[in-house]
Design brief:
The chain is mainly α. It is built from two helices and no strands. Helix 1 runs antiparallel to helix 2. It is elongated. The mean pLDDT is about 90.
């Protein structure tokens, strides 16, 4: 478990990315275990989670780049 300083925007962005990453994993597992009639919905949920992870990663990267500059 990580201790996160919630006042630090980088820590908040990192936590959001980790949460999104975990959701991707959960949704992928759900897709793999889904019954045939639910696979289409499960895959769409997985893709939505990937989109959320991409957004979180972009937010995190923009903070890191700003700090490095």
């Amino acid at each position: 478990m990580f201790i996160i300083d919630r006042t630090d925007p980088r820590a908040h962005a990192l936590e959001a990315w980790r949460d999104a990453e975990q959701l991707v994993s959960t949704r992928w597992d759900a897709f793999l275990e889904a019954e045939p009639e639910a696979r289409r919905f499960a895959f769409a949920s997985y893709v939505a989670a990937l989109d959320a992870e991409e957004t979180a990663a972009t937010d995190l990267a923009s903070l890191v780049i700003r700090i490095a500059a």
